[in-house]
Design brief:
The chain is α/β, with parallel strands linked by helices and 201 residues long. It has a domain at 4-33 and 89-195: P-loop containing nucleotide triphosphate hydrolases (Rossmann fold), CATH 3.40.50. The protein is built from ten helices and five strands. It has helices at residues 15-26, 34-45, 50-55, 70-79, 83-88, 90-97, 110-114, 128-141, 148-164, 186-198; strands at residues 4-8, 29-32, 103-107, 120-125, 177-180. The protein has a five-stranded parallel β-sheet with strand order 2-3-1-4-5, with helices on both faces. Bound molecules: cytidine-5'-monophosphate (C5P). Residues 11, 33-34, 37-38, 73, 76-77, 80, 107-109, 158, 162 line the site of cytidine-5'-monophosphate. Cytidine-5'-monophosphate is lined by residues 11, 33-34, 37-38, 73, 76-77, 80, 107-109, 158, 162.
Length: 201
């Protein structure tokens, strides 16, 4: 039997950490759907047509190097406004969500568009300043030469694009539970997510 957990929210709110922790706790498979858009964005930077890149995407593309870079994130956010790109990625995500043994998908439109029937929907958020500082630390740890101001501007630009696009904008599903992690450490946020899922199993 399938059991789907949909985790949506803006960049660097803690979705990835919470999703991985939830998957490990319950033994569910995890798909970071941002990686799909990052693959398409990276292929566009290589000169490929983004719709073609989305249509031909396979699981092995998700292992490509450089997908977590700031450049790939910006390119992802640009291709993500394209309705044809989004449509081409739907089946891959829904097939993943239906796998036996349970699945966690994290992204921007999982609870609203990809898996509206998900058993659990969480909307994980935090203030733009807190998210920018977290992303800054991650990128510095990964060896990138970035400034905090540049990352805050980047987070705001990405929020604006993600929330205001015509197709599948970032927003909580009507039945999503919001988790604001601005003042929470990882352990507290993960415990809150696990408690919410436990209450619906
Ligand atoms: O989550 P991540 O930062 O990897 O996502 C990169 C970009 O991909 C986001 O800014 C967003 O524009 C897009 N995205 C999306 N829908 C998803 C996941 C990511 O539009 N489900």
């Amino acid at each position: 039997m399938s059991f789907t957990v949909a985790i949506d929210g803006p960049a660097a709110a803690g979705k990835g950490t919470i999703s991985r922790g939830v998957a490990a706790h319950f033994g569910f498979a995890h798909l970071d759907t941002g990686l799909l858009y990052r693959v398409v964005g990276a292929k566009m930077l290589d000169g490929m047509d983004p719709v073609e890149a989305a249509r031909t995407l396979t699981a092995s593309d998700l292992d490509r190097d450089g997908l977590r870079s700031a450049a790939a994130g910006q390119a992802a956010s640009k291709v993500a406004v394209n309705a044809e790109v989004r449509a081409a990625l739907v089946d891959f995500q829904r097939a993943f969500a239906r796998r036996a043994g349970g699945a966690v998908l994290d992204g921007r439109d999982i609870g609203t568009v990809i898996c509206p029937q998900a058993e659990v929907k969480l909307f994980v958020t935090a203030s733009a300043e807190v998210r920018a500082m977290r992303r800054f630390r991650e990128l510095v740890a990964a060896g990138e030469d970035v400034s905090p101001d540049q990352i805050l501007a980047d987070v705001r630009a990405r929020d604006d694009r993600d929330m205001n696009r015509a197709t599948a904008p970032l927003k909580p599903a009507d039945d999503a539970v919001t988790l604001d992690t601005s003042e929470m450490d990882i352990a507290t946020a993960l415990a809150a997510a696990i408690a919410e899922i436990d209450s619906r199993r």
